[in-house]
Structures are given as C-alpha cells and as structure tokens.
Amino acid sequence: MSSVDGAAAAEEAPALARPVVGPPEADMDYRVVFAAVEKACEDNLSLLSGRPDRPPPGPVAERLTTCTRQIQEHGRAMAPVVAGFAAVFHHYDLDAQTVGNGYRSLVKIVLSCLLHILHKARYIASNYHSAFFRAEHNALEMEAYCSALTQLRALLHLAQRIMDDNPLGQLFSLHNHELTTRFVQEYSSMHKACFYGRCLGFQFSPSLRPFLQTVVISMMSYGETYGKQQSGLGLAALSLLTSGKYVMDPELRGAEFERITQNLDMHFWKSFWNLTENGLITGFNRMASSQVQVNFTFTVPPVALRLPLASDPSLSVSVGPPVAHWGPGPVHMRLISYELREGQDSEELLALSRDDPAPVPRMPWVQKLPPSPSLLIHFHGGGFVAQTSRSHESYLRSWSRDLGVPVLSVDYSLAPEAPFPRALEECFYAYCWALKNCHLLGSTARRVCLAGDSAGGNLCITVSMKAASTGVRVPDGVMAAYPATLVTTDASPSRLLTLIDPLLPLGVLAKCLNAYAGVEYRTVAPAPGAGTLSALGRDTALLLSDLTQGASNWIQSFLDPGRATRATRRPSQTPAAAAAAAATAAATGAPAGLVQYPEGFEPLLECRAVIRPLTCPVVRNPFVSPLLAPDALLRGLPPVHIVTCLDALLDDSVTFARRLRAAGQPATLTVVPDLPHGFLSLSQLARETEAATAACVARMRGVLQPESGGGGDASRQA
C-alpha cells in the first residue's frame, strides 16, 4: 500500500511496505518506519560530517546536512501524533470490516513520504562517494521531500485539531462555521508546489505516477497556450517547448501547477478536461476498449411524462421536463449495448438519434437478442462542470459487456452555465423517461441500477431521493464511485488532502462547488445543437497531438536537473512571508490568529489568494448535499453501494454510509486506499485500477442480478 517509487525500495524495506490502511494489527508499522528513518538520518549525518583524512564538506553536503536534520526533527515530532491517531483509528471507520477514514489516509501518506525519504537516504549513504553520484540531483530530491514532510506535519496538526474539536468518531465539523472558516483559509494559504514537482503522486500506486506526471505536464503546457491566438502549427510548436521545460524542471512544474490551480478560471478547467473528448483520445479509447454493437446519442424532447405511483400502480403521477433557469429543454443521452437487442433499432428510437449516418446499420443477418431484464443508467463525473458520456465511454463499454445489460448514460447540462438544479432535473427526467420507454432501450427494466462517479455519484443519490419524494419507483440500487455527498468546504481530515492531490486540488474543487451552487455566475441557455466540444477545433487537436507526444517523455525527469534553467526557488520560511500570508487571510475575513502550531514550527506559506468557505445557502440543500438530508428522506433510498479511494471525498463517503445505516438503510462501503479520484477512467492503466473497477462491477451485478450473489460481503475493503 505504500507508494514507494521503484522496485529497489521495495527490496530494501519489505517489512516497511506493508499496508498502513488495513486491519488494526498493521497500524503498528509506523513504529518501524519512524525508527528506520531516524537511523538513516543518523547514518547520513555521520557520513556528511566529514573526516580528517578527507576534504571538508562542500555546499551540497551542507544542504544535505541541513535537510537531514530537518527531516529528523519532523520525524521525532510526528511520531507521537501518529501514535495518537493509531490508537483511535477504529472509532472513525464505518465498521470493523470496513477500514478507512481521513485520519488513516493522512497517516498512510505521511508514511509513504517517509519511505521515499528512507529509500533516498539509503541510496545517498551507499553512493555518496561514487564517481557517478549526482550530488545536485539528490540534494534537490531530499529537499523536495523535506518540504513535503514539513507540510504534512502541518496537516497532521490540523487533523489533530479537528479530532480534538469534534466528538469521538465524527469526521466533520458540520456545525462549527468558525472552525471550518479558519481551517480552510489556513491550508489554502499553505505552500503546495512541493507536492506537484518531484513528489508528484508519491501517495498513490507507483504504476500511476507516469500517468499523473503526463497529466500535470499537459495541464501546464495547455495553460500557457490557453487563450492565445495562434495557428495550429504555432500552438503545437509552443506545446512541445513548454512541455519539455516542465519535464526537465520539476520545481518549475510545481510552481506553475500551483499558480494555475489558484488563478485560472472555470472556463480553463472546462476546456482542459474536455480535451478527453477530442477525437484523438476517444479514438484510441475505442480501439482499446470493448467493441459494442450499439453506441449512439439521441435527444428526448421536453414532453411531460406520466408514470405509475410506486405505492399504487393504478394511480399515476406527472413528471414535467427540466425547466430550471431557462425553461423547458430537451435531454441528451447515449445508449451503449454490447449486444443488439430488440427495440434498440426501432424507428421510434432512431428518429431521436443525433448521429449521422444511422447509428444502428440494418443488418438482417445479425440476430437480435430479447430485451434484458436489467438496465443500467449512468451519470458521468466531471465536477458538475465538464465532460460528457463520451469521456466515460471506455469503461461503459466494458460494463455493458461484463454485466450483459444496456447502458443509458445521460449528458446533463453543465455548470456554471447550468447550476443546480438543472442537472438534477435533467437526470431525473432521463430516469423517468427510461422507465417509461425501456422497451426502446432493449430492456424490460425489471431491475434498474443507477451508477456514477464523483459528481455523477451525487446525482445517482439525489435522483433516487427525488424519485422517492415524487412517488415514482426508485431504482433497485445505486453504485456511487467516490461520490460528492457534501458540496461544501467543511473541514475533515480527508479534505486536508486537497492540498496535495494533483487530480482534485483545493482551488479547483472550490471552483467546481461554486459553479454548481451558482455562486457569482450567470446562467446561459445552451445554443440549439451546441455540444460540449463546440469550442474544440483543429488547433486544439493539433495541440493535443503534439502535447501528448512531448508529455509522454516524463521519464526524462530523471535526467540531471542542473541542465535546466530554474525559474523558481523553493520557498523559504521567513517572517515576511508569514506576515504577508496572514494579511491575505485577514483580507478575506478570517479570524485573527488562524492556527497555532507547536512552538518553533511553522508550515511553508504561499502569499496568494486564500479560498473562502462556501456560504451560499443552496449548498445545504439536501438535493445538493445528500449528506445533510433528513432521515425521512434517506429512508426512501434503495441500497447504496459506495466505492471510494484515497481522495478528499473519503470522509464524505464514510459519513454518508454511516448516516444511511443509522436511518436503517442498507449501505456498503469499499475503500481502495492506493488510487486517486477518477480511477474509473484509468481502469486500463494498471492492475490496481482494474481491480477497483471490478469491485464497482461486482456491486452493480449484485443489484442487477441478486440471485447470482454478486456484490460480495456487505462492506469490505477491496
């Protein structure tokens, strides 16, 4: 479970690489890790101190000595805090079999950082006097992880404050607005660049680090070309230049990533995330994923529907089309089916198609299967602001094949142009339309499962709540992967991880939440026929093509970084920086004296914009944040199966599952501790992501085929 980079580290310390987030007996491994780091520091300090028969230490040796002493000091201070967390971990888990919460995640990340430091310290001790020892490179590596350890020590302190200020077992400070304000503004003002340079993705499975580096480098390059008026050839040339410098200079990459995540607006993020829908990438995904016989988009007009009441099918209820913000409008969907089934090539359905040529070719020799008794309805992720079913098509194809069911994915309207409740209205209308017209989708809908990830997981839960409150039949179950169940900036130990998460950083998460809540944005009705990717033209395609080629050379980061020109320096902890950061926080309305750290310790600070906690009342609406729903509303939900990971939303999932069980509702939680947010879209990259995706499929199979016994135990860690 530790994210040691490379097989060498695993060979050096096999006893240290056992799971940290696991059964209680594994929690004692932290003692071995801290003891090993302490010894390695002592050995290196002895080595670097010099001897009478050798020349005096040079500047690099002095840097390594300073860094090693700081690591030693941090380790000694953090060990008792970790010991305190380990003693009470189990009180914050969902149950004895479902091991996982933000405190465990934070300690796991601390130990991962220490294991990287241990591996590097042992390498330095063994190779310091070698002719091939790259002194500057190794000094920069140790300094980067020392900076990361400094910030993690601060996060441990903040987590300790959250634990002290809340009842035992409670992960959130939901009713302490002052505490939330203070904590959000504190960790949003902390230096983050060290986590996006040399240390990028150290907390995740090592097999994913090349991908994460490629994503971040691509983001940097795209950020420099975003909004520039250049030809496709010019953009491509510029992308190669910029991606190269971020490969060669990890410190520059980290600083630029921090700047982008804090300063660029939502339109940049929508544009960047929508690059996954470019023909170059989707074409590759289609070749690499399962081939299906049915895959086309269609549009349902805004017509009122009548559905039978779940409590009395002899009565019916009217469901109107979505109307929020700009009035009635159509809903776009995609149908995916591994096998051609009756109804999927009907004239009635094909008349609604938006694809040209005909999405289902007339092939009389292809045998049509009878309708499936099951139907899977999918709501995609993307922070409520980006992507469509096309971005998630790869794993949807596999789901249709593995489950043997048609998949209906809804392309709901996106924020900030369409904030709450437009997406919820469209998804609920699509759900009701699918129930009424399941015969067109190749299903009898005897069993219906809702599935979604991140924002889509939120919509699965809220659509089910809306169905229950309307009187319509609720789905037979929900599979929500890393769902957003609390659309606020309330503090919890797992939410502290937004400081270090390359796929869900705090600045971007806050922008998405603000956009969905409708804060400071004006709604705009979509132009007729306009798609999500209407702004992506030939220039963007050329940019992406060359960008991918340049960024894929991530391995060059192992080259001597001294060959690159440095534009940034690691921030130093100075009184001026601390005062400037405090003044910035005060300007945003933070209480005086944000957080008191132990005497003699302060985290590295960043004098940039501090994020305000969300105060918009809409975020407390239970149909926005289902974690805040009353028990009466939760009792109307079907069984909810949550699969979560090492991300900022882990505590949301643990707390929501706990609330469901307290309300008497069946709920399961599967924790995958080494994978980042969005792992479903990475299912083909690594063995670990394949296993996590298989856990999601098992949960859906348990809903759609209960007689098969799919889904496994009620709650288990994957």
**So how many helices?**
21
Shape: elongated
Number of domains: 3
Structural class: alpha/beta
CATH uppermost class of the largest domain? Alpha Beta
* CATH architectural name of the largest domain: 3-Layer(aba) Sandwich
- Largest beta-sheet characterization: 8 strands, mixed
**CATH homology superfamily of the largest domain:** Alpha/Beta hydrolase fold, catalytic domain
Range of helix content? 40-55%
Please count the beta strands (DSSP E, at least 2 residues each): 10
Q: And the CATH topology of the largest domain?
A: Rossmann fold
Describe the structure.
By secondary structure, the protein is α/β, with parallel strands linked by helices. It folds into 3 domains: 164 residues, no CATH class; 165 residues, no CATH class; 298 residues, Rossmann fold, CATH 3.40.50.1820. It is 43% helix and 9% strand. It contains 21 helices and 10 strands. The strands form 2 sheets. It has an 8-stranded mixed beta sheet, sandwiched between helices. Strands 2-3 form a two-stranded antiparallel sheet. Helix 4 packs antiparallel against helix 5. The longest helix is centred in the first third of the chain and has 30 residues. The termini are close together.
Give short descriptive properties of this protein.
718 residues; alpha/beta; Rossmann fold; two-stranded antiparallel ribbon; 10 strands; disordered C terminus
In short:
With 718 residues, the chain is of the alpha/beta class.
